[in-house]
Specification:
This protein is of the alpha/beta class. It is 36% helix and 18% strand. It is built from 14 helices and twelve strands. The chain has a ten-stranded mixed sheet. A two-stranded antiparallel ribbon has the order 5-6. Helix 2 links the parallel strand 2 and strand 3.
Length: 396
């Protein structure tokens, strides 16, 4: 079976600095986002037949503890951890359950309660998930802690060496996304900066400065997915958004072939995008609005190329021409992206889905992309996994 899948309810919390809301634990986050998504869908928790719950930092079965805030109904609850693509992996699994005829109404929920400061390994007495990727990078670029900005900063350096991009191009990405976030009440930061302020902020690694890096965050996101029959029977046609293409890809041989750009997931992203466009019969040119994984500005620029918005090596030309903001060819990260909206790892992919759902419904307020009809989502986690999804307003 390959049934159609629809987003019928979305919800998210405001993303905040870790610990900024005193006493706000992950069950509270999950209750807030999950209740919002259920309310948006107009269904109660007892209509949910399966739940996929994502988080990176937490104990086993924290997913159950989180959804128990919404109800105890005995349904399967699957805990999901796929690094920064955890939320969209939960979304993918929920959609697969509906496609395969195993459920008609599914909840995908993600949350994260994070420590302040940069990401670090939780376990030091065993092999790290990124050991092989870091080995590849260290052959060309001097390692530096913390590992995440080092990895993406090295990829940025490689792009500069190969294709002639400059630190200013990467800073333009940060400037754009901070500017977009001003109109997003869910964003952790809503401050606008000049390009020079972005460039002058503290240097992190390679072309990256502090204002081009996503922060650690607390927060949650949730999505209710449904089959076509469920949408029809419950009168949800007007608000439903269809997932018309979706693919999940893990590391390929190229990922460990020696390129820094490949080591941070370029080839995974490219293959997933190609699969999605093939499934849907659509193209990147037809897309109106995009939420992509800008954990660092370098990754947004690389992802322009991976998604097929331009030829390989020409991502910096898109940002230079203004083609990825309002008035340009696409609006990329109208939410402010991870750089400004925040990045609670388990919630990020579901927050991206929420933003694109609001955009396609035409209810995104001052950040609304005019006449948005087709939306693309890209969410990546190193180690590695990428999920790309394509959405359109439902036609039932």
């Amino acid at each position: 079976m390959n049934r159609r899948v629809f987003v019928v309810g979305v919800g998210m919390t405001k993303f905040v600095k870790p610990g900024a809301r005193e006493g706000w634990d992950y069950p509270d986050m999950a209750r807030e986002a999950g209740s919002a998504a259920l309310s948006d869908a107009g269904v109660s928790y007892d209509r949910i037949q399966q739940a996929y719950v994502g988080y990176v930092y937490g104990d086993s079965c924290s997913g159950q503890r989180a959804v128990y805030e919404l109800g105890l109904s005995g349904v399967p609850v699957v805990n999901v951890n796929n690094n920064c693509s955890t939320g969209s992996t939960a979304l993918y699994l929920g959609a697969e359950a509906i496609r395969g005829g195993r459920a008609d109404c599914v909840l995908a929920l993600g949350f994260e309660k994070m420590q302040r400061g940069s990401l670090s390994a939780s376990y030091t007495d065993r092999a790290g998930a990124l050991d092989k990727h870091l080995e590849v990078l260290a052959r060309k670029y001097q390692p530096q802690e913390p590992f995440a900005p080092y990895m993406f900063g090295a990829a940025g350096l490689e792009h500069m060496e190969l294709y002639g991009s400059t630190p200013e191009h990467f800073a333009m990405v940060g400037e754009k996304n901070h500017r977009h976030s001003v109109d997003n009440p869910y964003a952790q930061f809503q401050d606008e900066y000049t390009l020079q302020e972005i460039l002058d902020s503290r240097s992190i690694y390679g072309p990256l400065t502090k204002l081009q890096c996503s922060p650690t965050s607390d927060g949650s996101g949730a999505v209710v997915l449904a089959s076509e029959d469920f949408v029809r029977e419950n009168g949800l046609t007007e608000q439903a958004v269809e997932i018309v293409g979706q693919a999940m890809v893990t590391d390929l041989p190229e990922s460990l072939g020696g390129s820094a750009i490949s080591a941070v997931g370029f080839d995974m992203s490219r293959k997933a995008a190609e699969m999605v466009f093939e499934q849907s019969g659509r193209s990147a040119e037809e897309v109106d609005v995009i939420e992509l994984h800008d954990c660092f500005s370098a990754n947004e620029l690389l992802t322009y190329e991976a998604l097929g918005l331009c030829d390989i090596g020409e991502g910096h030309k898109l940002i230079e021409k203004g083609d990825t903001t309002y008035g340009g060819r696409w609006v990329v990260n109208p939410s402010g992206g991870l750089i400004s909206k925040g990045h609670p790892l388990g919630a990020t992919g579901l927050a991206q889905c929420s933003e694109l759902t609001w955009q396609l419904r035409g209810i995104a307020g001052n950040r609304q992309v005019p006449d948005a009809q087709l939306a693309l989502q890209h969410n990546i986690g190193l180690g590695g996994a990428v999920v790309v999804s394509l959405y359109r307003k439902a036609a039932i």
